[in-house]
Design goal:
The complex is a heterodimer of chains A (235) and B (348). Chain A is 31% helix and 24% strand. Chain A is of the alpha/beta class and 235 residues long. A 5-stranded mixed β-barrel of chain A has the order 2-3-4-6-5. In chain A, a hairpin with a 2-residue loop joins strand 2 and strand 3. In chain A, helix 1 packs antiparallel against helix 2 and helix 1 runs parallel beside helix 3. The two termini of chain A are 41 Å apart. Chain B is an all-alpha fold and 348 residues long. Chain B has 19 helices and no strands. In chain B, helix 8 packs parallel to helix 10 and helix 11 runs parallel beside helix 16. The longest helix of chain B is centred in the N-terminal third of the chain and has 34 residues. The two termini of chain B are 42 Å apart. Classes of the chains: A alpha/beta (235), B mainly alpha (348).
Chain lengths: 235, 348
């Protein structure tokens, strides 16, 4: 790889990272805090590309026989993530992954006490993981008597639609779903990957995830409304 | 190690391409043409192809399995690149600005003593494994005993303060898991250092040659960043592709029957840590989510991960040479599993 080509590879990698940070697409791959890692790293790479280009230009101007850098061939491989970031731009992981991975509920250790839900809000917005933990580890004690509002995407366990959200601890490579069964007023014809807002009440029913045998809690559905996918689809 | 300091053989043809047609001697021009398309031209062609064929490419890539693979691949790269940049900037700064005799003064003369010191230094300096590989390369190049540099390379991502805190958060009310992780990682890192001091051979190391820099510190600094990033980054891409493939292709159901077995469970999670290549800052959360496994198995997952995984092995092969990586990765794996099993039996 010649040095001018090296400068272009650096420019593409750095530019791709800055573009991800700028457009907010980075949330499809990493946690929100990573913005503060991606942006400076992209800027440093651009600076290195700039310095390299300047050196090449200056050496050409001086017709200096300079230093050849026919070095790392492996650098070509850096174009693969550039193609991934700029051309393929894959969406956030969704139902395809969730149908093949066991529910993550085990990640949440059982806490001794869950804070009471507020009485003056109805329905109470909760994350899927919070609802699932309260339902499984606390037998829904803090959920009784409240209407809750959950957001997630649809996936199918056989014929049965489930509500799910991907939980990410580092980057999308370790994404695992938390799944919730639905009973009650579940409309027919829900599309996989469709994002929905579900309002409902705690149901004591529990199922098992076929993949890893973990408990899957249920919700007694009152209404299901389609919503656009949130900026950060992970949790 | 001496080979690492040898100057890069200069290559006249490359810059002859860069000379303007007026100044370029005719034979040089002919030679340049004979070499086929230059890398710059190839890159330009690729770019034009990529931009014009973009709609078609996008169609090709809509299969859900490929989308899932690509999301994971891009995710590993995007997560790791900033840490790699941090590492190469740090290692370039060591190479360009730290005087050569600094490490001779700071690091103990006797390797047997330098190794545990390096291990403890690793516990203080927050580094990701992607950052620590090029930093260890810079240390070796600067004349630090390889045994000490490798112990630092292993210990720094395994037990730095960020990792300790994240482990504490991932295992609430379970501080002995944090203690076990620190103890096992330190034990394994120091044993590997001592093992290298006893059995390691310098000729296994093939550090990529750095340009001989007589033209000032800043040009050397930029050249080192560029070279190290392109080199280690290329290998990181290989590792990311392998990790993404395994994450997408290996069904989780395979783990179920193994989980209950005390020995197989530990080995299974150790192998899983190698395959999935999660960064050490967050592997504790993944370990905690593998609830079917015993605490010792989870410990093995957290000790092996920062020591050896496919992404790291690829980067080590790039930084220190393939012969090194072929010996070092298995040794690090065995040391990590043994240390985890031992510590797990005593503490958990």
């Amino acid at each position: 790889v010649r040095r001018d080509a090296q400068a272009i590879i650096l420019l593409l990698v750095g530019g791709g990272m800055i573009r991800l940070a700028w457009t907010g697409d980075y949330l499809d791959y990493v946690k929100p805090y990573a913005f503060w890692l991606i942006l400076p790293a992209g800027l440093i790479l651009l600076a290195v590309a700039g310095v390299t280009a300047w050196q090449v230009w200056r050496e050409r101007a001086e017709a200096d026989d300079g230093h050849g850098h026919g070095e790392p061939k492996v650098a070509w491989l850096l174009l693969a993530p550039v193609v991934g970031m700029l051309l393929v731009a894959p969406d956030a992981l969704g139902s395809y992954e969730a149908e093949r991975t066991g529910t993550v509920l085990g990640a949440e250790e059982a806490r001794s006490a869950y804070p009471e839900l507020p009485d003056d809000t109805d329905p109470v917005p909760l994350t899927l993981l919070d609802y699932a933990a309260r339902a499984i580890f606390d037998d829904g004690a803090t959920l009784e008597g409240h209407r809750v509002q959950l957001r997630g995407f649809i996936l199918y366990d056989g014929d049965e639609p489930q509500l799910a959200r991907m939980v990410v601890s580092c980057c999308a490579a370790d994404a695992r779903p938390v799944k919730l069964g639905m009973e009650g007023e579940v409309p027919a014809g829900l599309e996989p990957d469709q994002w929905v807002e579900v309002v409902g009440e705690y149901s004591p029913r529990q199922g098992r995830d076929e993949i890893n045998g973990e408990l899957v809690p249920y919700i007694e559905v009152e209404s299901v409304t389609g919503i656009p996918a949130p900026d950060n689809e992970y949790q | 190690v001496t080979a690492a300091r040898a100057p890069m053989p200069h290559n006249g043809t490359v810059s002859a391409d860069l000379a303007s047609p007026e100044t370029r001697p005719p034979d040089a021009a002919r030679r340049a043409r004979r070499r086929g398309p230059t890398s710059l031209q190839a890159l330009a062609l690729l770019l034009v192809f990529g931009l014009t064929a973009r709609p078609g490419l996008a169609d090709l890539f809509t299969a859900p399995a490929f989308q899932a693979w690509a999301a994971r691949f891009v995710a590993v790269c995007v997560q790791a690149f900033p840490f790699l940049v941090l590492g190469v900037v740090l290692s370039a700064a060591i190479a360009a600005f730290v005087p050569a005799d600094f490490f001779h003064r700071v690091v103990p003369k006797r390797t047997a003593l330098a190794v545990p010191v390096a291990g403890l230094a690793g516990a203080v300096v927050p580094g990701c494994e992607c950052a620590s590989v090029p930093v260890a390369g810079a240390l070796v190049r600067r004349g630090v005993a390889p045994a000490a540099a490798f112990t630092f390379m292993l210990a720094s991502p395994a037990i730095n303060p960020i990792v300790v805190v994240s482990t504490f958060v991932a295992f609430p009310g379970n501080p002995e898991m944090v203690a076990a992780r620190v103890a096992a990682s330190l034990l394994a890192a120091v044993s590997i250092g001592w093992l290298w001091a006893r059995l390691g051979k310098t000729e296994w190391l093939r550090l990529p040659q750095h340009r001989h820099h007589e033209d000032g510190k800043w040009p050397a600094f930029w050249a080192a960043i560029r070279h190290d990033f392109l080199h280690a980054g290329g290998y990181l891409v290989i590792g990311a592709a392998i990790a993404a493939s395994l994450n997408t292709l290996v069904p989780e159901t395979w783990l179920q029957p193994i989980a209950d077995h005390p020995v197989l469970g530990v080995l299974a999670l150790a192998v899983l840590a190698v395959l999935v290549s999660i960064c050490s800052e967050s592997d504790a959360f993944v370990a905690a989510s593998l609830t079917q496994f015993s605490p010792t198995a989870k410990l093995a997952f957290m000790v092996v991960g920062p020591f050896v995984d496919v992404k790291l092995a690829a980067m080590q092969a790039g930084t220190f040479g393939r012969r090194f990586a072929a010996r070092f990765a298995p040794a690090a794996f065995c040391a990590a599993v043994l240390a985890a099993a031992l510590t797990g039996t005593v503490l958990l």
